[in-house]
Design goal:
The complex is a heterodimer. Chain A has four domains: 225 residues, no CATH class; 206 residues, no CATH class; 190 residues, no CATH class; 138 residues, no CATH class. Chain A is built from 27 helices and 28 strands. The radius of gyration of chain A is 36 Å and the shape is globular. Chain A starts with a helix and ends in a 13-residue tail after the last helix. By secondary structure, chain B is of the alpha/beta class. Chain B is 33% helix and 26% strand. In chain B, the strands form two sheets. Chain B has a six-stranded mixed β-sheet. A four-stranded antiparallel β-sheet of chain B has the order 2-1-4-5, with helices on one face. In chain B, helix 4 crosses helix 5. The chains are: A alpha+beta, B alpha/beta. Chains A and B meet through helix 16 and helix 25 of A and helix 1, helix 2 and helix 3 of B.
Chain lengths: 943, 252
C-alpha cells in the first residue's frame, strides 16, 4: 500500500461527501437543524451565564470603584488569610491560636477582636483612606405609611472613588441630614429624590438626596449615609461594624497583599486582580472545590445532549442514507471499499454537524441576548445582567461538539449502508433489514443483570437500615452507586428490547384498525429510525421522571411538616420583646388592644387574637422565673445521652431510629413555648375547631399538647394523661438545667392533632395549669388576620403603624416557596419538548419513508383520515414505549433510592400514571392534527 | 384540433365503464406549461381491454391518472361506471377509486408492512368491509392468480412476478369495474409478463373494463383495441392483433 493512500482515500471521501451535499443540500437540512438545536441551547446557556457573571474589569469596578484596593482586618496579627479570586469575601482565616475559620461571603463572622486593630497602623503614613461600615437601620416612610429595618452603608457622604461600586442614578450625594437609597428600596416604597424618611423612632427626618444603583447589593434594600445621618436609626447598639477601608491612591502589589494576608488582613487589590499570580490562583482554587462539581454537571449535561443529538440525528441519517443508497451503491460498484463508503457517511455527518454548529451559534447568541434582555428588563432582584459577552472558546467548543455529534450520528447508518447488497441497492430494493436476534438476547441479559444489580442495591439499603450511622453511611454510599449502575443497565436493556416489544405491539395492534396495523408494523420494521427516537425520548423521560418523583416525595414530606409561626397569611407580633437601651436589653411588653387599634388604622377590617405565654427564657436581668414542659424519660430517644446532650452514634440502627418517633427531630426533654388560654387560643394554634374533650380539658384546668411524647411514649392524638411542668426560680437559686426545679407538677393533658399548627406553641395551658406551677404569664403573640393577606409593602405599613406604639415588629407567615418546582416544571417541559420534537422527527422520517405507500393507499381510495390515523398511532406507539421505558427506569431509581430514606412510602403513582398516559395522547393528538392527507398525486411521482 | 372519439366500432351497445370526453390537462405555467392531454375522448366498455401506447411524454400516464380519478382534468368530462369525476370532491374521487377502480402498477406498489393477504384485502378494508369478508374475497382473488399459498408472506419474500400477481389480485377484489394497468410487465421477464397479461385478459373476459398502458406491441396484442397517443392527442386507434395473429402474420 502506498503510504499516503489512507489520507488520499479520506480526502476523496470528504470530497464526495461535500459534492453530495452541494448537489442536494435539502437532504441534510434536517440533520443540520437537529444538530443546530443543541448548539443553540449551549450557546444560549453560554451567553446567559457569561452575561450574568461580571468580566474581570467589571468585577474589579464592582469591588473597588476607582479605588486601588480595599482592606479589612479579619483576624488577629499573624493570622493567615486566603481569599478567593472571584469573590474576595469568600475567605479562610487560619489563626495560629484557633485553627481555620471559614468566612464565606461575610467577614463579620470572624471579625471579633480583630476588628479592634487599626487599619491605619498597617498602612504607610499619610495614606488616604475611605472607610465604609455596615449596619442595620430602622426607617419609616410616612407618605407610604411604611417602616422596616434595612441594611445601611455608613461612611463618607460620597467620593468619586466609589463610582462603579455605587452609582447615583438620580439626585446627588447626601449631606449629613440626607440619605441615599438603593433602587430596590426606592422601588419597594415608591421613594424618589426629595422624599423625607424618618431614621429610627423620632431620630430625625432625612431627605432622600439620591437613588443609588449598587451592583454588589442589587437585591437588597439599602440606605446610604454618614454616621451622623444614620446613627439615630442604628439597630444594634448604635454602632456600625464590618469596616472596609478603601485606598483611593495606594496601589498594593502581590508582595504587599501577601504580607497583609499573612497578618490577618483581607485585601482586594486592583493590580493583583488584574494579573493574579499563580500562588494566589492555586490558593483560591483550593478554597472552592465545589466549582469542580459544577464542571461535572456541565459535562453530564453536554454528554446527555450529545447522546440525544446522536440518537435523533442518527435516525435522520438512517433515512437519509437509505434514500441515497443507490448513489452509494454506484460508488461501491466502481470499486469503493466499505471503508470509503463509511468515510463518505462520516464526512457527510461531520460537514452537516459543522454547518449545524455554524447555524446554531449565532442563533444561540441571539436567543441568549434576548433572554438576557428579558432578565434585565423583567428579572427579579436576584438576576443581574452584566452585558452580552461571547466566550470564544465556548464557540469553538460548541462547533467542535456539533461536528463530532454529526460524525457520530452518521457512523452507525453509514456502516449499515456500507454493508448493504450493492446489486439490491442498485435495483432500488426497499427490503428492510431482517430483525436480528442478538439485540433481544443482549437486552434480556442486560435486564437480568439490572435486576440482579438492583436487588444487590436493595440489599445494601437493607444492610444500611440495619446498621448504625457510620456503617450505614458506607453501605448507603455503595448502594447509591450500585443503583445507578443497575438503572443504566436496565435502560440499556429496555432499549435493546425495544424492537422485540415493537414487534409484539405490532402483533397486538394489527387487528385493532388499519391505521394501527400500518403504524405498528412500520415502527417494528424500521428499527433504524424508531429505536434511536425511543431512546432519545426515554433518556429525557428518565431524568425528568426521577426529578418529578423525587420532588413529589420531598414536597410531601416537607409540606406535612411545614408550619409557620402564625397561620399562613397572617401577621404575628411578638408582644414580649426587648429594646436595646444604654447597652442593656430592656423588656418591652405590648398592649395587644392598643397595638390592634394601631393596626386597624391602615387596615380597618383586621381581626386580632392575642395569646399569652409563660416566661421561658432568661431574657434580661429582671427575668428570674422560667417555666417549661418536660418530656418524661420514657419519651426520650434511647440514643440520646442527657449528660452530653448528644445522640450516641452506633447505639441504634437507622431502622430503629426512623421507626422510633422519640428519635425524630427532638433534642433533650425540655419543651418551650407554653401558651396560656382557652378554646379560642387553642383553635387558632391548632388551625381547627377544638373538640369537646379538648375544651373540657382546658375548662378543668388541664393542658392540650401537640407533641404526644409530652404525655408518654405511646400517646397519640386523643390520648389523655398528664404533662410535666417545671418552674425554675433563679431568685431561689434554681437555674434551668442545674439541680432541681423550684416547682414541678403534673397536670392533666390531652394530645391534639393540629390541622395547620402555629409551631411557636406546642403546649396550651389553662390559666389554672400555669398557676399550678407558679409560672409567670406574660403577653405572648398578637396574631393579625386579614382575608386578603399582606403584601410586602402592607407588611411594612403594618410595621409602621405598630411602631407608633413602641418597638414592635410585624412579620407575615408565608409558606416556603418550593423553588424545586421550577426544576421539575422545567424538566417536564423539556421532556415534552424533546418528546414532541423527537416524535415529530420520527413521524417526518416515517412519512418520508412511506411516501410511496401513501400514494398507493391514496390510489386505492384510502380516506384522508387514514394518514392521520397512521401518524397518530405511530406517535402514540413511539412516545408510549419511550415514556414507558423512561418512567420504568425513573420509578426503579426512585424506589431503590428511597429505600434508604425516611420516606420510602411516598411514591407518586398519580404522577407516574399521568406521565405514562398524557405524553402519548398529546403527541398522538398533535400528530393527528398536524398530518395532512396525501394529495392524490400522480402515482409515478411517488416512485 | 377537433375532438377525437374512439369506440369499439362493433355496432353493439355494451355498457361503457370509462367515458372520457374532450379531456385536457396541462402542467406548469407560462413558458414551462406542458399540455399532457389535449381534448382526448375515449370510451372503454365492460369486458373490453384497451391498450394505450405511445412514446415517453405522450400523455399515457396522465390519461391513466385521470381515468383513475387521481388527477382532475382541466377540461372535459370523465365518468367511471356513470359516476362523473370532474368536479368531484377529493372524498368523492377517493370513493370512486375505492369502489370502482383497480390499479396495477409497474413497480407493484404493495405495502411492504402488510402481508400478501392484507395487501389484497386492503381495498375492502378501506371500504369498511368486515374482516371475514375481506379475507375471504382476498383469498379468492389470490387463488385466481395462483398465489393462494403465499397469503401470509410479506411482499419482500416474493419474486417480481409473484408481487405483480398479488397486485393484480388486489385490483380484482371487490368486483372492480375498471382496471388500470400501467406497464404491469415492465419489471418482469417475458414469461412472467405473459402470465400477468393473461390474468388481466381474463379479468376483461369476466366483465371488467381494462386499460393497459404499455410500450410493447407484443403486450398490446392482448388487448381488444390499441390507442396510440402522441403529444397528448390520440393519433390512431386500431383493433389489436391477437398474439397468434402476430405469429402467423394474419391481418387484423
Amino acid at each position: 500500500m502506498r503510504p499516503l493512500a489512507p489520507a488520499r482515500r479520506a480526502a476523496t471521501a470528504a470530497r464526495i461527501a461535500w459534492r453530495d451535499l452541494r448537489r442536494d443540500p435539502r437532504q441534510g437540512v434536517l440533520v443540520a437543524l437537529l444538530v443546530a438545536l443543541p448548539a443553540v441551547v449551549l450557546m444560549g446557556v453560554s451567553v446567559v451565564s457569561a452575561g450574568q457573571e461580571p468580566t474581570d474589569a467589571q468585577r474589579i469596578t464592582q469591588q473597588l470603584g476607582s479605588n486601588e484596593a480595599w482592606v479589612q482586618v479579619v483576624g488577629p496579627a499573624g493570622a493567615r488569610v486566603t481569599q478567593h479570586t472571584d469573590d474576595p469575601y469568600m475567605m479562610q482565616v487560619n489563626d495560629p491560636g484557633q485553627g481555620a475559620q471559614e468566612a464565606p461571603g461575610n467577614v463579620l463572622a470572624v471579625e471579633g477582636a480583630a476588628q479592634d486593630r487599626e487599619v491605619s497602623g498597617l498602612l504607610p503614613e499619610q495614606t488616604r483612606t475611605l472607610t465604609l461600615s455596615q449596619a442595620d437601620v430602622y426607617l419609616t416612610f410616612d407618605a407610604a405609611d411604611a417602616a422596616g429595618a434595612f441594611d445601611a452603608v455608613v461612611g463618607p457622604a460620597w467620593d468619586p472613588a466609589f463610582v462603579g461600586m455605587y452609582d447615583v442614578v438620580r439626585g446627588s450625594a447626601p449631606d449629613d441630614d440626607q440619605v441615599m437609597v438603593s433602587t430596590e428600596l426606592a422601588s419597594r416604597w415608591g421613594l424618589d429624590v426629595g422624599d423625607v424618611l424618618s431614621v429610627g423612632r423620632g431620630g430625625g427626618e432625612r431627605t432622600v438626596s439620591g437613588v443609588v444603583s449598587a451592583p454588589l447589593r442589587a437585591e437588597e434594600g439599602v440606605v446610604f449615609g454618614s454616621l451622623a445621618a444614620l446613627e439615630p436609626g442604628l439597630q444594634d447598639g448604635a454602632s456600625a461594624t464590618g469596616q472596609t477601608t478603601y485606598l483611593p491612591d495606594l496601589a498594593l502589589d502581590w508582595n504587599a497583599v501577601r504580607d497583609l494576608n499573612n497578618d490577618g488582613v483581607a485585601v482586594y487589590s486592583r493590580s493583583v486582580a488584574e494579573d493574579p499570580p499563580q500562588e494566589y490562583l492555586d490558593a483560591s482554587r483550593a478554597l472552592w472545590p465545589a466549582a469542580e462539581g459544577e464542571g461535572g454537571a456541565a459535562i453530564v449535561g453536554a454528554g446527555l445532549g450529545l447522546l440525544e443529538v446522536v440518537l435523533l440525528a442518527g435516525a435522520a441519517f438512517a433515512v437519509s442514507m437509505r434514500r441515497r443508497q443507490e448513489r452509494l451503491a454506484l460508488l461501491a460498484a466502481t470499486g469503493a471499499g466499505r471503508g470509503a463508503l463509511v468515510g463518505v457517511g462520516i464526512w457527510n455527518g461531520a460537514l452537516l454537524g459543522f454547518a449545524g454548529g455554524l447555524v446554531g451559534v449565532p442563533v444561540g447568541l441571539a436567543v441568549g441576548a434576548g433572554w438576557l434582555w428579558v432578565l434585565d428588563t423583567w428579572g427579579d432582584v436576584n438576576t443581574q445582567v452584566w452585558g452580552l459577552q461571547v466566550v470564544w472558546w465556548h464557540v469553538v467548543a460548541i462547533v467542535a461538539f456539533t461536528t463530532a455529534a454529526g460524525a457520530l450520528a452518521a457512523l452507525v447508518p453509514a456502516i449499515a449502508s456500507a454493508r448493504r447488497d450493492v446489486m439490491a441497492a442498485l435495483r432500488g430494493s426497499r427490503k428492510p433489514s431482517r430483525p436480528r436476534r442478538w439485540p433481544a438476547a443482549v437486552g434480556g441479559m442486560l435486564v437480568a443483570g439490572a435486576a440482579a444489580t438492583l436487588a444487590y442495591a436493595a440489599h445494601l439499603r437493607e444492610v444500611a437500615w440495619e446498621s448504625a450511622e457510620s456503617e450505614a453511611y458506607s453501605a448507603d454510599s455503595l448502594a447509591e452507586q450500585v443503583t445507578l449502575v443497575g438503572v443504566v443497565l436496565l435502560f440499556a436493556g429496555l432499549i435493546a428490547l425495544t424492537p422485540v416489544a415493537l414487534r409484539l405491539a405490532a402483533r397486538v395492534l394489527g387487528s385493532v384498525s388499519l391505521g394501527a396495523r400500518l403504524a405498528s408494523r412500520d415502527a417494528a420494521r424500521h428499527t433504524g429510525r424508531t429505536v434511536p427516537v425511543v431512546a432519545a425520548i426515554s433518556v429525557t423521560v428518565l431524568i425528568a421522571g426521577n426529578v418529578a418523583l423525587n420532588e413529589v416525595r420531598m414536597v410531601e414530606v416537607y409540606e406535612s411538616d411545614e408550619y409557620g409561626q402564625a397561620q399562613f397569611g397572617d401577621a404575628y407580633v411578638p408582644l414580649y420583646t426587648w429594646q436595646y437601651v444604654d447597652g442593656l436589653d430592656t423588656p418591652l411588653v405590648g398592649d395587644a388592644g392598643a397595638l390592634t387599634a394601631r393596626a386597624r388604622e391602615p387596615f380597618p377590617g383586621i381581626e386580632a387574637i392575642a395569646i399569652d405565654r409563660v416566661q421561658d427564657t432568661y431574657a434580661d436581668a429582671e427575668t428570674v422565673r422560667v417555666s417549661i414542659a418536660r418530656r418524661p424519660d420514657a419519651s426520650l430517644c434511647p440514643a440520646w445521652d442527657p449528660d452530653t446532650e448528644m445522640y450516641e452514634m452506633g447505639s441504634m440502627t437507622k431502622r430503629e431510629m426512623a421507626a422510633d418517633p422519640r428519635c425524630a427531630e427532638q433534642f433533650g426533654s425540655e419543651v418551650y413555648g407554653l401558651a396560656v388560654g382557652g378554646p379560642a387560643e387553642l383553635e387558632y394554634i391548632l388551625g381547627r375547631p377544638a373538640n369537646q374533650a379538648e375544651r373540657e380539658m382546658l375548662a378543668s384546668g388541664g393542658a392540650v399538647v401537640v407533641d404526644p411524647l409530652l404525655v408518654g411514649p405511646d400517646a397519640a392524638a386523643g390520648s389523655e394523661g398528664s404533662v410535666h411542668l417545671e418552674s425554675w426560680d433563679a431568685g431561689g437559686g434554681a437555674y434551668l438545667g442545674e439541680g432541681e426545679p423550684s416547682e414541678a407538677v403534673d397536670v392533666p393533658a390531652i394530645v391534639a392533632e393540629p390541622e395547620t399548627w402555629v409551631s411557636t406553641y406546642p403546649v396550651i395551658l389553662s390559666l389554672e395549669a400555669a398557676q399550678s406551677v407558679d409560672a409567670e404569664v406574660v403577653p405572648g403573640t398578637l396574631f393579625l388576620q386579614r382575608e386578603e393577606g399582606f403584601t410586602e409593602l402592607e407588611e411594612d405599613q403594618l410595621e409602621a403603624a405598630l411602631m407608633r406604639e413602641g418597638e414592635f415588629h410585624a412579620y407575615v407567615a408565608r409558606p416556603i416557596d418550593w423553588s424545586l418546582g421550577v426544576i421539575t416544571f422545567g424538566s417536564l417541559m423539556a421532556t415534552l419538548l424533546v418528546a414532541g420534537a423527537a416524535a415529530g422527527l420520527a413521524l417526518g422520517l416515517a412519512r418520508a419513508d412511506a411516501r410511496r405507500d401513501d400514494v398507493t393507499l391514496s390510489s386505492l381510495g384510502a380516506s384522508p383520515r387514514l394518514a392521520r390515523s397512521v401518524a397518530a398511532w405511530q406517535g402514540g406507539i413511539l412516545v408510549g414505549f419511550a415514556v414507558g421505558a423512561g418512567l420504568a427506569c425513573a420509578a426503579v431509581l426512585d424506589v431503590v433510592r428511597a429505600m434508604g430514606s425516611a420516606s420510602p412510602g411516598v411514591f407518586a403513582w398519580d404522577v407516574l400514571a399521568i406521565g405514562l398516559v398524557m405524553p402519548p395522547l398529546i403527541v398522538a393528538g398533535f400528530a393527528w392534527l398536524m398530518t395532512r392527507a396525501p394529495k392524490a398525486v400522480h402515482y409515478r411521482l411517488a416512485a | 384540433m377537433s375532438a377525437q372519439t374512439v369506440g369499439d366500432g362493433s355496432g353493439a351497445d355494451p355498457e361503457i365503464v370509462l367515458s372520457m370526453r374532450d379531456v385536457s390537462k396541462a402542467y406548469g405555467d407560462g413558458d414551462g406549461r406542458v399540455h399532457a392531454l389535449r381534448r382526448v375522448s375515449l370510451d372503454v366498455a365492460a369486458g373490453e381491454m384497451v391498450a394505450v401506447m405511445g412514446t415517453s411524454g405522450s400523455g399515457k400516464s396522465t390519461l391513466l391518472s385521470i381515468a383513475g380519478a387521481m388527477v382532475t382534468p382541466d377540461a372535459g368530462e370523465v365518468t367511471v361506471a356513470g359516476v362523473p369525476i370532474e368536479g368531484a370532491s377529493a372524498r368523492g374521487r377517493a370513493r370512486v377509486r375505492r369502489e370502482l377502480v383497480g390499479f396495477v402498477f409497474q413497480d407493484f406498489n404493495l405495502i411492504p408492512a402488510l402481508t400478501v393477504i392484507e395487501n389484497v384485502a386492503l381495498p375492502l378494508d378501506l371500504d369498511g368491509a368486515s374482516r371475514a369478508t375481506a379475507r375471504s374475497e382476498a383469498r379468492r382473488a389470490l387463488a385466481a392468480v395462483g398465489m393462494r399459498e403465499r397469503g401470509k408472506d410479506f411482499p419482500d419474500d416474493l419474486s417480481g412476478g409473484q408481487r405483480q400477481r398479488v397486485a393484480i389480485a388486489r385490483a380484482m377484489v371487490g368486483q372492480r369495474r375498471l382496471v388500470l394497468a400501467d406497464e404491469p410487465t415492465g419489471a418482469l421477464d417475458s414469461v412472467t409478463g405473459d402470465r400477468v397479461l393473461s390474468v388481466l385478459r381474463s379479468m376483461a373476459d369476466q366483465g371488467s373494463a381494462v386499460v393497459l398502458v404499455t410500450h410493447d406491441a407484443r403486450h398490446a396484442a392482448w388487448a381488444d383495441r390499441i390507442v396510440h397517443l402522441a403529444d397528448g392527442t390520440i393519433l390512431e386507434e386500431a383493433r389489436a392483433a391477437r398474439p397468434e395473429q402476430l405469429l402467423t402474420g394474419e391481418p387484423r
